[in-house]
Amino acid sequence: MGEKMEKWTTDKEGVKILIELLVRKGIRQAVLSPGSRNAPLLLAFAREKRIRHWVVLDERSAAFMALGMAQQSGQAVALVCTSGTAPLNYAPAVAEAYYQRLPLIVITADRPVAWIDQEDSQTIRQYEVFRNIVKASWQLPGELFGEEDCWYANRLVNDALNTALSGRRGPVHINLPLREPLYGQRSYAAGELRTIRRIEPERGPASEKMQELAKDFGCARRVMILAGFHQPDPALKIALQELAKLPQVIVLAETLSNVASERHVVTIDRVLATLGEEEKERFQPELLITFGGALVSKHIKAFLRKYRPRWHWSIDCSEHPADTMQGLTTHILAEPALFFPALAARVGAVASHYARGWEEKKRLAEERHVTFEKKAGWSDWKAFSLILPALPAGSFLQLANSTPVRYAQLFDCAQLARSDGNRGTSGIEGSTSTAIGAALMQEGMTTLITGDMGFLYDSNALWNKYFPARLKVVVMKNGGGGIFRFIPGPSDQEELEECFETACEVNVEGFARLHHFQYFKAADEKSLRRLLPEFWQEMERPAILEVETPRLKNAEVLKSYFRCLQGE
Length: 568
Known about the structure:
Strand order of the largest sheet: 3-2-4-5-7-6
Number of domains: 3
Oligomer: single chain
Shape: globular
Strand content: 15-25%
């Protein structure tokens, strides 16, 4: 008999079980942050060649990078840090992953339980520290002293990974108390390890239920399908295009929904702005069907809360669907990519002018948009009107929160392969780190459009050594975006500049030079038009384009735009 292969790694058997089950469950990427208490985990990941590891110093940036990788690959990503406050830096990205339904496997090393609250260094109450932003939390036994302990650890890890990867996918937290010594090693003979399999029932509605839903669908003469952020899915996109051919159906698709089509309304805010108060009831849907994540558009949420549909179906695999419009009537536990093709195959046209009415408003909005574009002066609006249509066809877009993702709602970006943004929680932190992780998972070009405050807030991302040359970063140098100047409330306060905008000078060029990015700057329409083709050329290094716009003018230009859409 030949000898079994042996592998030297950490002598912490619980860590060995964890790593092996990660491999068995298909996890192939891990983002690690240095530390001492997590030394056994670092050693084990570094020696496990079936999982590629990336080492990132800053835990907050590391977590958003892992989020970007999971977002683009569709696969779970492991995230590993040391004890103490280190896990707390994961919280913004873990929350974002939870609401984007991305399976991060958050693994935190901890001190032995006996030392919690005993004033031992780097020791806090880590177990369930993410309890409200993960699907579930587990704490593994610190040491395994026999077969029963090994069985218990095996069961816990299986349960954690199955939970992350099934149903409403999302992050899970595995806390692992580790006792010194931390750097011991031993060899393990290759052998069998129990892997618990979870099989989900068919997610598509049963035929009888589908027929019943199709019958109800046929009773509505005004049907609105509203898409929030969603992963690209060809079958879903085709089904929605088929449904949009029906005269009673209109599909409203946000920029991040990734289901854009010439048949759909993809510039929701600008089309809604053309509706006069006296005609809004005519555009009120009888049946609203929603799917995907949180909506960017406050306008559509306000419209549907005031002009509520008679029926609201939420297509959602989660156990607790959101009632965003405050009128939910039916929760259909199904994947949109299964539900909509099944629905499209069973429904037909009914006499209605609903889709035609929306199409007329869509054309009117386009005409007024073009009229405004011709006369708009240099501003954020003007810059976005040049940048977004010029994004290379088939490329990937990452939108930072605050103003970038909102401006993108006003323009048609149908040429893109995919658009994403951290809209699960809508925080400004981590956008650059997320874009790095996303770019690492794609062969084509990825462009991040961010504001100067978001860029500054995630400047730790620039420590990263994994920048792909195909990453492009557009920084809107607008003194904080001016968002508080065009939303009701803050714009009327005398403390606007001191307490809300908190504008500060961001040295974008300095960051670019320090971290060896190619650097470009545009401060007017002419220079931006000239630089964009060169900026999007293939280069040996990633590139940053600084776009400087007038801070005090941007909000007024945007308000003027909406007045133009309203026909004023």
